[in-house]
Backbone:
């Protein structure tokens, strides 16, 4: 197992980015690697970080402005070669169909529920580890 996993967190709201960091902790589950976070507040920053490589999972805020996480997810799934799995934060459970449209791998609702979020993130990290093995 790799010593750390890099998680990109996109939200224009610093409080949402903090909720994500606190919910995940240093390790969202005992059987996944420690996580390090790369925070992005703009769509351009997300694309720049993905171009650099090394991102294991993306967490995208569906309520972000000027570009929501759902549109960002759809764009990176179309444009980024070997796009990392995406956990989408959505404002309402009724928006699950939009999460499907955006091709998010996992979707959880805001505000961030630590148990639900950590479980979703851990599942993506396990999936990434199995694919990369």
Residues:
């Amino acid at each position: 197992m790799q010593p750390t996993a890099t998680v990109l967190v996109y939200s224009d709201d610093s409080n949402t980015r903090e909720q994500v960091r606190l919910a995940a902790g240093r390790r969202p589950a005992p059987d996944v690697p420690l996580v390090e976070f790369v925070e992005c507040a703009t769509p351009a920053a997300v694309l720049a970080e993905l171009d650099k490589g090394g991102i294991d999972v993306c967490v995208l805020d569906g309520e972000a402005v000027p570009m929501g996480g759902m549109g960002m997810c759809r764009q990176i799934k179309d444009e980024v070669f070997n796009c990392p799995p995406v956990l989408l934060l959505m404002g309402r459970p009724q928006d699950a169909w939009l999460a499907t449209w955006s091709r998010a791998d996992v979707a959880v609702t805001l505000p961030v529920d630590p148990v639900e979020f950590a479980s979703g993130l851990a599942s993506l990290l396990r999936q990434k580890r199995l694919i990369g093995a």
In short: The first helix runs from residue 14 to 24. The chain has a mean pLDDT of 94. Residues 47 and 106 are 20 Å apart (CA to CA). The helical segments are 14-24, 43-52, 69-79, 96-102, 114-132.
